[in-house]
């Protein structure tokens, strides 16, 4: 951030220095294929402690080694829908599924070979999310992530506002799934309300508790 120094008088008559911080201008733009490596790193750092991600990739060393590759594939799916937006420097990113959730088939340049137990968890997770998704058309916020060094700067809010304007103009709601009480509170501040909640598990491996949240068009 930037700051400027301003003079002020205090009650004792002494003059002091106050630092007044100003948030830099946030530029939101459509991502491109060239952005994918940077955005994958942002995703990986932002979701390093996420309950769903760590259920799918519980080993710290594996996550550190392959976390960026795990996010590159989803990022390309959002890009193919023209629904991947980021800040100009790539430190915050949002990936959406379009209304109707069109099927996107991509040739992955470097596919990951997942073990059977992880595929089982992917399948269970996807099934539960599909079960609780709203039946009507909506914009689906699949991933919203800000690099930890740049969190609490309003970047996530700016990214959401970009798509909120599109959704509102079409009279469509926005929907997301999240997996921590802190995130539930955060998204409530941005107009979402809890629609449903559920647990994800496979035999011998209980998974995260999740919330589905809906923001109506305004």
Unreliable residue stretches: 1-22
Largest sheet, in brief, is:
7 strands, mixed
Number of helices: 6
Rounded Rg: 20 Å
Distance between the termini: 32 Å
Structural class by helix and strand composition: alpha+beta
Fraction of helical residues: 25-40%
Residue-averaged pLDDT:
88
Overview of the molecule:
There is one protein chain. Helices cover 36% and strands 29% of the residues. The chain starts with a strand and ends with a strand. The protein is built from six helices and nine strands, in the order E-E-E-H-H-H-E-E-H-E-H-E-H-E-E. Helix 1 crosses helix 3. With 218 residues, it is α+β, with helices and mostly antiparallel strands. The protein is globular, with a radius of gyration of 20 Å.
Task: Name the descriptors.
7-stranded mixed beta sheet; disordered N terminus; alpha+beta; 6 helices; 9 strands
In short:
This protein has about 220 residues and is an alpha+beta fold. The protein is about 35% helix and about 30% strand. The chain is built from six helices and nine strands; from the N terminus they run βββαααββαβαβαββ.
């Amino acid at each position: 951030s930037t700051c400027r120094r301003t003079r002020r008088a205090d009650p004792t008559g002494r003059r002091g220095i106050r630092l007044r911080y100003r948030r830099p201008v946030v530029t939101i733009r459509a991502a491109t294929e060239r952005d994918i490596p940077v955005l994958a790193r942002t995703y990986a750092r932002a979701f390093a402690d996420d309950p769903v991600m760590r259920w799918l990739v519980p080993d710290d060393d594996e996550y550190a080694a392959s976390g960026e590759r795990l996010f590159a594939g989803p990022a390309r799916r959002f890009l193919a829908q023209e629904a991947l937006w980021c800040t100009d420097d790539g430190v915050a990113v949002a990936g959406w599924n379009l209304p109707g959730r069109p099927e996107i088939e991509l040739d992955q340049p470097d596919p990951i070979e997942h073990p059977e137990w992880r595929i089982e968890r992917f399948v269970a997770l996807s099934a539960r999310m599909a079960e609780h998704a709203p039946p009507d058309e909506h914009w689906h916020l699949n991933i919203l992530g800000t690099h930890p060094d740049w969190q609490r700067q309003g970047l996530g809010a700016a990214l959401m506002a970009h798509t909120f304007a599109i959704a509102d103009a079409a009279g469509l709601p926005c929907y997301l799934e999240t997996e921590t009480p802190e995130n539930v509170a955060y998204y409530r501040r941005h107009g979402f309300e809890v629609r449903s909640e559920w647990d994800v598990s496979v035999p011998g491996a209980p998974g995260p508790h999740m919330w589905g949240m809906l923001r109506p068009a305004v």
